[in-house]
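Batch job 17 of 40 flagged for manual review because the log was empty.
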Amino acid sequence: MENKEETIRKIFDILSKNYNLRVFLDDGPYRVLIRTILSQRTRDENTDQATDNLFNKYKDIYAIVDAPVDDIEKLIKPAGFYHVKAARIKEVSRILIDQYGAKVPNDMKELLKLPGVGRKTANCVLVFAFNEPAIPVDTHVHRISNRWGLVNTKKPEDTEQELMKVVPRDLWIKLNDLMVQFGQTICKPTSPQCDICPISEYCDYDKNLDENI
């Protein structure tokens, strides 16, 4: 009988064959950070539109920190909560210029000092801006890892800690991206498509469905 690490590697091997990893490293750490702030409580397509709108007009951190907040609000409106996010973007940008030489820190402790940056956002920056092993836990990762039976948690923060214990470190970088795509296409919040799921044999949720038939 295979152990949990072997099962996890098989799952991620299957997902890697079904989904292409998205690459944000070329965008630069600042854009990745701002994109992650914009992504909070909205869909990817809205995040992409707001990010493109903002950076098509204001090319770098210095232009954004000097931009009128109402203009930023108009540009990022597709991402929702644009009043809060615009103010946060301006505040974070000013702190980065004043305290970090306009550079995004490559360090969890320093990232968490930035206003509005929690562990999920910080982990996203580490993974997608610096290619550093970390596990960003959003709603998809939290839901799916519990469905698979990798963890048994109620809060995303607990899910991150438990996943760090069971998922091999060399898989951390690809975990969020693959699981998010899987959650958007197959393992949806409601009505997951278990009948076409490529990893159903490893999933506790699907096994429980079979037992209740």
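Reviewer: the log was empty due to a logging misconfiguration, but the result itself is present. The CA atoms of residues 92 and 204 lie 41 Å apart. Unflagging and moving on to job 18.
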